[in-house]
Write a structure and sequence with these properties.
Layout (H helix, E strand, L loop, with lengths): L7 H10 L3 H21 L5 H13 L8 H9 L3 H14 L11 H9 L3 H14 L2 H14 L5 H17 L4 H11 L5 H17 L1 H7 L3 H13 L7 E2 L2 E2 L1 H15 L3 H17 L5 H16 L4 H14 L5 H14 L4 H5 L2 H6 L6 H14 L5 H14 L2 H18 L3 H15 L7 H11 L4 H14 L4 H20 L12 H13 L5 H17 L5 H9 L6 H15 L5 H4 L11 H15 L1 H18 L21 H7 L14 E6 L2 E8 L7 E10 L5 E9 L5 E4 L15 E8 L8 E9 L2 E9 L9
Helix pairs in contact: 1-2, 2-3, 3-5, 4-5, 5-7, 6-7, 6-8, 7-9, 8-9, 9-11, 10-11, 11-12, 11-14, 13-14, 13-15, 14-16, 15-16, 15-17, 16-17, 16-18, 17-18, 18-21, 21-23, 22-23, 22-24, 23-24, 25-27, 26-27, 27-28, 27-29, 28-29, 29-30, 29-31, 30-31
InterPro entries: Adaptor_Complx_Large_Subunit, AP1_complex_gsu, ARM-like, ARM-type_fold, Clathrin/coatomer_adapt-like_N, Clathrin_a/b/g-adaptin_app_Ig, Clathrin_app_Ig-like_sf, GAE_dom
Subcellular location: Cytoplasmic vesicle membrane; Endomembrane system; Golgi apparatus
Keywords: Cytoplasmic vesicle, Golgi apparatus, Membrane, Protein transport, Transport
Length: 784
């Protein structure tokens, strides 16, 4: 006897009437018990009602897996009411993870062969929702037959099922190629929309299908022209636009067919111009069609005038009140700025206005586009706008804005003085957000501009006297005061206002930097070195400097203590050599990428050694997370540091670039190249440590867009020990700008053949890219 239970409507009312979650669970548990009992008793008349209640319980998030077999029974029933609930249950309760879904394949095949449209529709919907690859292979021929059925209801569902099959099993594309050409003659918009989607899937997954469907481009153009020129239709029009969903689908398919194909692109040029000029953009439907038209124009080989029209449409989008439309316009213009720079440049004032948007996503996109629009002709105006934005922009945008300004100034600076002023303003406004190499670049720039030494040291001294919280600014100022302090005291500089500075004021300011709690260890190292150099540049007594140096001889910071001890020794034992040792640093010529990398590495070694040491534990922990190679272990200890050369202390004392590495006898190796980004490896094996291999990774960018957020990670087998040094930066400027270098130290105690796996992550052309590859062709000299 079947236990009486609630009807579906009564169950819904009782569940909604529950005041607490406990009451709801109690009602559902009680009813599930009744449903189980009914299933066990095998009541065929009320099985579909019990399953309907179970599906409602499943929709609320409660377990309903015990109803899976009942779905199969209902599907196999000849009654339509049973089949309807059974197929619905199969779509909700079954998927590819359960083996039970394969049991309904035969039932679906039988229902597809019936002439009842409603039953065929149920079977097709279920197959397109949860059909696995095995089911698709078994039922593909049945679906193909239904594509040409007289009933438009069945044909529409068969087309959508074919789309699902192609996504699951791309090799079935040959089966559906012939029916698609006939379906394009349909007048039913639903079938036509499904057919366009099916052709799109086929073209994206099969080169043969792409070549086949290029023949139907004139027919697609005719369909779209009919949609654009037809009058208002109540059935298909949305906001005055005739079936925008179908228009968008056709435009996407045209974009695929016309890409890198001159003949197809020529066929659709006139139509795209007609759509671009006749579409109403007062509503979202028209804007969607117009935006898809712009993307199609930019992706095919369109005429130059048509591309300018597309850029102007995006410029109008920037004036739209809808934030979403403005966002997609900024994103699209950013993609087009490399290929149509002059056309995008006309909308520069509007783009700059978007910087002041309160919406964070809009202002970020506007910032990226503004930086891409900077060139040699507008660098002064654009930099002024960007600096104004930097002063008021949110903190999460300051790093990108500051880095972008510095890169633009480096590439397009009209004069060295303007370049120095620009960097100083950025350091003063957002010094803590600048790139790691900003200090080294500015000191190099100042050192090269001999005629601006007096101007630079005065500007930096004034900025330092006003604020010592911006650490990069303090570091550059301390370096400049140490190098050119004598020019600061002379008081003769025509390019700045008269500034009278006393020796005691300069020393007091540097002591203030040393004693400040906001000064980083590297900054104190700059200040201490500056004081030491001033001992040879000031006319007065150097006893005050000697006292400060001796105080820091017992500092807790090892780097600062080492400097102070060396400088104190110089005062006591080598005072006769002090003036010669502390001379001004010679100019370092900007040579190739290798010279720049070595110069930057030596500067970091002599002025920021503490920062490098602090990054080594982080790099070791990173290896635990990578696990890129089988057997890679993060338990390996880092290789021992290189034994310092006898002249190492003297290099620190001289504050000169470190001794160059011995000339490499191992050939360099290029391991990666994509869209202008190249990765080269150079190798050095120190003679004193034959088991140690030094690999210098050099990344260069010759493309037309900057590579940002560049990260290079490496892993080696378990028998090796790997240590990653900090990279020189994370941004690669376009057109062969300053490269990014990173040192890898690999200890190979067994002298086994080296295998190296690299993972690169970066942003390029507005897209995030990740590449993982293995390097197996390393020269034998790297391990033998």
């Amino acid at each position: 006897m079947v236990v009486p239970s609630l009807k579906l409507q009564d169950l819904i009312e009782e569940i909604r009437g529950a005041k607490t979650q406990a009451q709801e669970r109690e009602v559902i548990q009680k009813e599930c018990a009744h449903i189980r009992a009914s299933f066990r008793d095998g009541d065929p008349l009320h099985r579909h009602r019990q399953l309907a209640k179970l599906l409602y319980v499943h929709m609320l998030g409660y377990p309903a897996h015990f109803g899976q077999m009942e779905c199969l029974k209902l599907i196999a029933s000849p009654r339509f009411t049973d089949k309807r609930v059974g197929y619905l249950g199969a779509m909700l309760l079954l998927d590819e993870r359960q083996d039970a879904h394969l049991l309904i394949t035969n039932s679906i095949k039988n229902d597809l062969s019936q002439g009842i449209q409603a039953v065929q529709g149920l079977a097709l919907c279920t197959l397109s929702t949860m059909g696995s690859a095995e089911m698709c292979r078994d039922l593909a021929t049945e679906v193909e037959k239904l594509l040409l059925q007289p009933s438009s209801y069945v044909r529409k569902k068969a087309v959508l099922t074919a789309v699902h099959m192609i996504r699951k099993v791309p090799e079935l594309s040959n089966i559906f190629l012939p029916p698609c050409a006939q379906l394009l003659h349909e007048r039913h918009h639903g079938i036509l929309l499904g057919t366009i989607t099916l052709i799109t899937e086929l073209c994206e997954r099969s080169p043969a299908a792409l070549k086949h469907f290029r023949k139907v481009v004139p027919q697609l153009v005719k369909i779209l022209r009919t949609l654009v020129t037809t009058g208002y239709s109540t059935e298909h029009s949305i906001s005055g636009v005739s079936d925008p969903f179908l228009q968008v689908r056709i435009l996407r398919l045209l974009r695929i067919l016309g890409r890198n194909h001159e003949e197809s692109s020529e066929t659709m040029n006139d139509l795209l111009a007609q759509v671009a000029t006749n579409t109403d953009t007062s509503r979202n439907a028209g804007s969607a069609v117009l935006f898809e038209t712009v993307l199609t124009i930019m992706d095919i080989r369109s005429a130059p005038g048509l591309r300018v029209l597309a850029v102007n449409i995006l410029g109008r989008f920037l004036l739209n009140n809808d934030k979403n439309i403005r966002y997609v316009a900024l994103t699209s213009l950013l993609r087009m700025v490399q290929s149509d720079h002059s056309a995008v440049q006309r909308h520069r004032p509007t783009v700059v206005e978007c910087l002041r948007e309160p919406d964070a996503s809009l202002s970020r996109r506007a910032l990226e586009l503004s930086l891409a629009l900077v060139n040699s002709s507008n660098v002064r105006a654009m930099t002024q706008e960007l600096q104004s934005f930097l002063e008021s922009c949110p903190p999460d945008l300051r790093a990108d804005c500051a880095s972008g300004i510095l890169l633009a100034a480096e590439r397009f600076a009209p004069t060295k003085r303007w370049h120095i002023d620009t960097i100083l303003r950025v350091l003063t406004t957002a010094g803590i957000y600048v790139r790691d190499d900003a200090v080294a670049n500015l000191t190099q720039l100042i050192g090269e501009a001999q005629e601006l030494h007096a101007y630079s040291v005065r500007r930096l001294y004034s900025a330092l006297a006003e604020d010592i919280s911006q650490q990069p600014l303090v570091q550059v100022a301390a370096w400049c005061i140490g190098e050119y302090g004598d020019l600061l005291l002379e008081g003769s500089c025509e390019e700045t206002e008269p500034l009278q500075v006393e020796e005691e004021e300069v020393l007091a300011l540097l002591e203030k930097v040393l004693q400040s709690h906001v000064s980083q260890p590297a900054t104190r190292g700059y200040a201490l070195t500056a004081l030491m150099k001033l001992s040879t540049r000031l006319r007065g007594d150097s006893n005050r400097i000697r006292q400060v140096v001796s105080i820091y001889g017992s500092c807790l910071d090892v780097e600062l203590q080492q400097r102070a001890v060396e400088y104190n020794t110089l005062f006591q034992k080598y005072d006769h050599m002090r003036a010669a040792i502390l001379e001004k640093m010679p100019l370092v010529e900007r040579g190739g990428s290798q010279v720049d990398g070595e110069a930057k590495e030596s500067k970091e070694a002599q002025l920021s050694e503490t920062a490098l040491v602090s990054t080594e534990p982080q790099a070791s922990k990173l290896l635990d997370l990578l696990d890129l190679l089988d057997g890679t272990s993060g338990d390996a200890q880092p290789p021992p540091p290189l034994d310092p050369s006898p002249g190492g202390a003297l290099v620190h004392l001289l504050d000169l670039p470190g001794a160059p590495l011995p000339p490499p006898s191992i050939p360099n190796l290029r391991v990666f190249e994509r869209e202008g980004l190249q990765l080269n490896l150079s190798f050095v094996r120190p003679s004193g440590t034959p088991t140690l291999l030094l690999i210098m990774v050099t990344a260069t960018n010759t493309s037309g867009a900057d590579v940002t957020h560049f990260i290079c990670q490496a892993a080696v087998p378990k028998s090796f020990q790997l240590q990653l040094q900090a990279p020189s930066g994370d941004t690669l400027p376009a057109q062969g700008g300053l490269p990014v270098t990173q040192l890898l130290r690999i200890l190979n105690p067994n002298k086994a053949p080296l295998r190296l796996k690299l993972r690169l992550t970066y942003n390029h052309f507005g897209q995030s890219v990740q590449e993982i590859f293995e390097v197996n062709n390393l020269p034998v000299e790297t391990w033998q």
